[in-house]
Every structure is written in C-alpha cells, then in structure tokens.
Amino acid sequence: MTNFTIASQDESNQDHAIWLNLQKAISQSSGFKRWQKEQTDLKQESLDMLVRRYLEETLETLAY
C-alpha cells in the first residue's frame, strides 16, 4: 500500500524560500558566473531558468 504525504502550505512556502536562497547563492558563485560568460544563447532567461540550466549541465558533466 502506498502512502502519500500532502505538503502543507507552510512546507511549500518554506521550500520556495529555500529555493530562492539557493538560487541567490548559486548565482553569486564563481562557477555560475564563469558558466554564464561562456554561454552564447542566454537570451532573456529568468534567474530561475539560468540556475536550473546551470545545475543540469553541471550534473551532466559530473555524471561522466
């Protein structure tokens, strides 16, 4: 039997606040800034999308 846990609104708000703080920390890191300079197709992406792309590409690189 599967148990499903429904996150409360407070937990959801806390998760969102943690993600925002994490985005800020990542975007201020030297690795992110270097990655950003290397990108040629960044258009007008939001910070959220940039951090997600950076994390995805970084994790793909680490997986090799």
Oligomer designation:
single chain
Give the overall pLDDT as a whole number.
Answer: 88
Strand content: under 5%
Helical percentage:
over 70%
Distance between the termini: 37 Å
How are helices and strands ordered from N to C?
HHH
Discrete helix count: 3
By DSSP, the count of extended strands is: 0
How does the overall form come out from the CA principal axes?
elongated
Total domain modules: 1
Largest sheet: none
Structural class: mainly alpha
Radius of gyration: 15 Å
- Report the uncertain regions: none
Defining key terms:
64 residues, mainly alpha, 70% helix, elongated
Summarize the structure.
With 64 residues, the protein is an all-alpha fold. Helices cover 70% and strands 0% of the residues.
Helix and strand topology:
Elements: H1 9-27, H2 30-38, H3 47-63
Describe this structure in words.
This protein has 64 residues and is mainly α. The protein has one domain (13-63). It contains 3 helices and no strands. The protein has helices at residues 9-27, 30-38, 47-63. The longest helix has 19 residues, at 9-27. The model has no long low-confidence stretch (mean pLDDT 88).
